[in-house]
Automatic annotation (TrEMBL):
Keywords: Ion transport, Membrane, Transmembrane, Transmembrane helix, Transport. GO terms for cellular component: proton-transporting V-type ATPase, V0 domain; vacuolar proton-transporting V-type ATPase complex. Its main location: membrane. This is Vacuolar ATP synthase subunit I. The chain crosses the membrane at residues 90-119, 131-150, 170-194, 206-224, 230-250, 281-302, 309-336. One of its GO terms (biological process) is vacuolar acidification. The keyword Membrane applies. It holds the Pfam family V_ATPase_I. It is found in: Membrane. It is a multi-pass membrane protein. Belongs to the V-ATPase 116 kDa subunit family. It comes from Leptotrichia hongkongensis. One of its GO terms (molecular function) is proton-transporting ATPase activity, rotational mechanism.
Amino acid sequence: MESEKLAQTENTVLIKGWIPEEKIEEFEKVVKSEADDNYYLKVTEADKNDETVPIKLKNGKVATVFENLTGMYAYPRYNEIDPTPLFTPFYILFFGMMGADVGYGLVLLLATIFVLKVVNLSSQMRKSVKFFFYLSFSVIFWGILYGSYFGAEINGVWRLVNPAKQYNSLLIGSIIFGVVHIFIGLGIKAYLLIRDGKSLDAVYDVLFWYMALMGGMVYLIFKLMNLSPIVTSISMWIMIAGMVGIVLTGGREAKGVGAKLGGGLYSLYGISSYVGDFVSYSRLMALGLSGGFIASAINMIAGMISGNWFGMIFVPVILIGGHLFNMFLSFLGAYVHTSRLMYVEYFGKFYEGGGKPFKDFRTESKYINMDD
């Protein structure tokens, strides 16, 4: 329970606050057992549009450890949805794509298992360690696809793509991931608008953008590659219809025909920001390549000085120190840039936030003095 007001007189104490719905019955039993019949308890359902309602996130086993990322951006308001389970799969996927190395992933996995098993952690720290525990599997998965084992290749071991030679394929794949990610964000926005009884807004703000963006992409691909003229023509008209719809409805809240048209044209100009958003996902390729190339360079340097006994002394230092440092940089970069993709490109399509976190009405002791 979070206390909002606490007042008292000589004979009466008044407590007003918030409590999760699933805790009401338990709370009533506690009050009755402590106060007998000397109390008055009134529970009312919170107004979904009340911005003062504190937010208590409730997610599954995996998504729970990603709630800190939601809190770093902004807690949802009471009438919003919790974005945590909606971005968790993408966060795991993208982080692994940027870290992409089997060796680095195994080190992260074993380190987090050791800490979870051996170290006595607070609940918050335990969630943070579990966060990287789950991410380690994605790093290993993408490392297998890239064929990277501490920056080295293993002859005869299968891999899906060679990053050093097939970087164009990785770039295209990264942008495809971005398109899917952003379109899902728009789809969530449409769902929220329809849920709130704003079906026409879903058409104006989502469907028209789907038409303009998807039609434009299909048109460009088929036109540049000289593919089916019929599909090229259909996609062109879908794109035009979407753009016209954006111009006609993008400024619908303005007063006057000129202002509405100007607002619509400005909304259509926003298509350039979508292009920037799509290109932004190229960082999925860039960070994966940079970490892999640095790891390979570390191995190369160690190999160059291993020709004599004096150089062999420094080989372990270079390999261990170099890979640990590169692993730190790779994971730090993956953490920062994956968070950026979630906060800017993804959340920007459907999520605002602005809620305040729910805090239990109790003292939390960090240290306890025990006298003999």
